TrEMBL record:
Entry binding sites for substrate: S62, N112, E158, N165, Y189, Y241, V259
GO biological process, one term: L-glutamine catabolic process
Keyword entries, A-Z: Acetylation, Hydrolase
Name of protein: Glutaminase
Family: Belongs to the glutaminase family.
Species assigned in the record: Nakamurella aerolata
Gene: glsA
Length: 308
């Protein structure tokens, strides 16, 4: 197949760009190897193509958010989740305290305020922090088609410096948007962000979304099609934070970035896409990841607004 050669070629072409910087507000991420560069595609029948560091594991960070959102909807139904978290792009950075004025409802599940709320929704009302996290870990693993684990060093490093997320969680608690102890929610959400994934895992998770919720390798229907539709819609409008409009108009498929340098993209009905490169731009999106996705989109006609 010419695909791996093509993927290696675009890695070679984008590889020289060392602009941007690794996230430094989480000490353990600042210490990550900035030169990692990988790409992986997984079709909905489970065929995989990859090049570069596709087997290096990093913490999933914000790429966990659409999947936790999917799990919350699958468990409680969309109406219930919408009462707590909206679906409007915030146009602001991922760690902004964007809450609707009167209700205190976070604008969407892709910013931290919305993701903390989504995390708190998972599991039965009397679940403790550990049970909530375990449900999330199992859910993420089902999307990936293998058991995922936590990077404990990243977890404690982020929790030690989680002042901003603690502030956001306290605001959410004061508005009654979350009912749990704010610190428990921050700890659980931080653990969710610390789950280790390779580009292969991310591509498999993306392929599960591309495949209407059915994991291509295990055949498991992880969530219903209607849940996937909701998740991809929100990824499309809010997944790239304050660069979402630029991303949608130029690259044109729903995607989610994470502060460890991953980008996950979905071409519905076709393929899951993952890139990894830790240096980030001002929006917190991977510099070379954006370039790789841009190249693949134009070379392979992946913009979903373009007629075939
Ligand atoms: N764990 C990170 C945080 O809450 C996730 C942010 C991200 O990946 N953009 O700040």
């Amino acid at each position: 197949s010419p695909v791996p050669d093509y993927l290696q070629q675009i890695l070679d072409e984008c590889g020289g760009d060392t602009s941007g910087a690794t996230a430094d507000y989480i000490p353990e991420l600042a210490a990550a190897d900035p030169d990692l560069l990988g790409v992986c595609l997984s079709t909905i029948d489970g065929t995989r193509y990859e090049a570069g560091d596709a087997e290096v594991a990093v913490s999933i960070q914000s790429i966990s958010k659409p999947f936790a959102y999917a799990l919350a909807i699958a468990e409680h139904g969309l109406d219930h989740v919408l009462q707590r978290v909206g679906v409007e792009p915030s146009g602001e950075a991922f760690n902004e305290l964007s809450l609707e004025r009167d209700s205190g409802r976070p604008l969407n599940p892709m910013i931290n305020a919305g993701a903390l709320t989504t995390h708190a929704l998972i599991g039965p009302p009397d679940a403790d922090a550990e049970q909530r996290f375990e449900l999330v870990r199992q859910g993420l693993s089902a999307f990936a088609g293998r058991e995922l684990e936590v990077d404990e060093a990243v977890y404690s490093s982020e929790l030690d410096t989680a002042y901003r997320n603690i502030a956001i969680a306290n605001m959410l608690r004061s508005y009654g948007v979350i009912d749990h102890e704010p610190m428990d929610v921050v700890a659980g959400y931080t653990r969710q962000c610390s789950v280790l994934v390779t580009s292969r895992d991310l591509a498999a998770m993306a392929a599960t979304l591309a495949n209407g919720g059915v994991q291509p390798s295990t055949g498991e229907q992880v969530v219903e099609r209607s849940v996937v539709r909701q998740v991809l819609s929100v990824m499309m409008t809010c997944g790239m934070y304050d660069a979402a409009g630029d991303w949608m108009s130029t690259i044109g498929f729903p995607a989610k970035s994470g502060v460890s340098g991953g980008i996950l993209g979905v071409l519905p009905g076709q393929v899951g896409i993952a890139t990894l490169s830790p240096r980030l731009d001002d929006h917190g999106n991977s510099v070379r990841g954006v370039q790789l996705c841009s190249r693949m989109s134009s070379d392979m006609g992946m913009h979903i607004m373009e007629p075939p």
